[in-house]
Amino acid sequence: MAITTAPTDKPVKLVEPGSGTGSRTSRMLGVACLVGVAVLMVFAFVLTEADLVQQDVVRMIYIHVPSAIAGYTGFVITAIASVMVLWKKSLWWDIVAVAGAEIGLLFTGLMLATGVIWGRPTWNTWWEWGDVRLMTSLMLFLVYVGYLAYRRVVPSAEVRARRSAIIALVGVINVPIVNRSVEWWASRTLHQQSSLSDGKLEDLTLFTLAMGFVVFAMIFAWMLIHRFRIGWLEVQADTVGLQAAMAERRAQMEADIDDAVAHPGIGADTNADPNKSGPDDSGPNERGGAA
Amino acid sequence: MTHLGYLIAGWGIVLVAMALYAVSLARRGRELSARVPAERQRWMTTPDDADTAGFVR
Fold first, then answer.
1. Is residue A291 a part of any domain in this protein?
2. If you measure CA to CA, which chain B residue comes closest to A238?
């Protein structure tokens, strides 16, 4: 399995070692993310009104729902990349897959955390073990914890990529189940129906929620870019380390051969009694194994 | 404003977690890029695919 890449004739601008995974585009995106978060907070806390029933705690919607969508997106990206891993035998896609899973896990964790915090004043409980939305969400989270944990225990990159791709494809089945669970099992959840589909959101609330989606999408993209580049660098660092070790070993062998040629008498005593043990017997092997 | 504690907790966790993860990504990237030659830091292509490995074939 190899990293497959598109051929390019364009001159590539080299980066300075140690300058990190940032590029001009990613830095601009990062600034846009910071501005976006600031603007989102102004809309969420200043410009939008409190809900008549839930009061101000409804402002959790602007981070809870975008976190959920970002989590789903991460796992769908992982699934698509996993298909490519299995189809193209490409470990380039494996780097994409793990990036999507890690970021998806972050946002799913945030979705769970904000859901728990929002649930306490709304439902008068932090957690309900019989609730299908909560339990399927937790299961989704744990599957991808397992996915990332599994990747850490398999040393072979090829085996790891193939097996974890299968785990990802099984795990992604849960995404539509989580998303539709409030409709499919409406009587077994405290969770409300989709806020977007029931049309109850006011214009500015809807606009701010849409802004939340955009801001979280930008943050997601920034993280995906950087996480992918880290995965890429991990592979390159391993390759560089392996090549350095091989070069060192090769140089040592050549030095040993030169040494043996320059001093043929040492360690190669052809007149020595083969049955006699002594320091000369081990000769070159003792000094690095020229044999 | 009602439920201020819940709002601070919810928004705080989200913003802090995202910030910490972003910082950890930047740090990991900086450390790794210091160990890898510049010509190997082309994200989408590499000079020699056969040599790209790091992956066991």
1. no
2. B54
**Per-residue confidence (pLDDT) for residue A6, from 0 to 100:** 45
Asked if residue A109 belongs to a domain, the reply is: yes
Q: What ipTM was predicted for this assembly?
A: 0.81
Residue A11 lies in a domain: no
Q: Is A52 helix (H, G, I), strand (E, B) or coil?
A: coil
Distance from CA of B47 to the nearest CA of A (A): 10
Q: Which domain holds residue A153?
A: 26-232
Chain A residues closer than 8 Å to B56 by CB: 155-158
Taking 3-state DSSP, the helix, strand and coil percentages for chain A, each rounded to the nearest 5, stand at: 70, 0, 25
Tens digit of each residue's pLDDT (9 = 90 or more) over A79-121: 999 999 999 888 889 999 999 999 999 999 999 999 999 999 9
Instruction: Give the residue with greater pLDDT, A244 vs A64.
Output: A64
Indicate the SS3 state at residue A125: coil
* Number of domain units in chain A: 1
Residue A60 to residue B2, Cβ atoms within 8 A: no
In this prediction, what percent of chain A has a pLDDT beyond 70? 82
Instruction: Report the CATH number at residue A148.
Output: 1.20.120
| 8 Å CB contact between A221 and A74 | no
> Which residues 227-286 in chain A show a CB within 8 A of chain B?
227-230, 232-242
Identify whether the C-beta of residue A43 lies closer than 8 Å to the C-beta of residue A36.
no
Query: What residue type is assigned to position A98 of the chain?
Result: V
Q: Is residue A78 part of a domain?
A: yes
Q: Reduced to 3 DSSP states, what percent helix, strand and coil does chain B have, rounded to the nearest 5?
A: 65, 0, 35
A115-161 per-position pLDDT tens digit: 999 999 998 899 988 889 999 999 999 999 999 999 999 888 889 99
- Burial code (b: 16+ CB inside 10 Å, e: under 16) for A138-157 equals bebbebbeebeeebeeeeeb
Over the stretch A261-277, which tens digit does the pLDDT of each residue have? Answer: 888 766 555 555 545 44
Chain A partners within 8 Å of B30 (Cβ): 18-21
User: Is residue A75 within 8 Å of A101, Cβ to Cβ?
Assistant: yes
Q: Which residues contact A73 (CB under 8 A, 6 or more apart)?
A: A100, A104, A217, A220
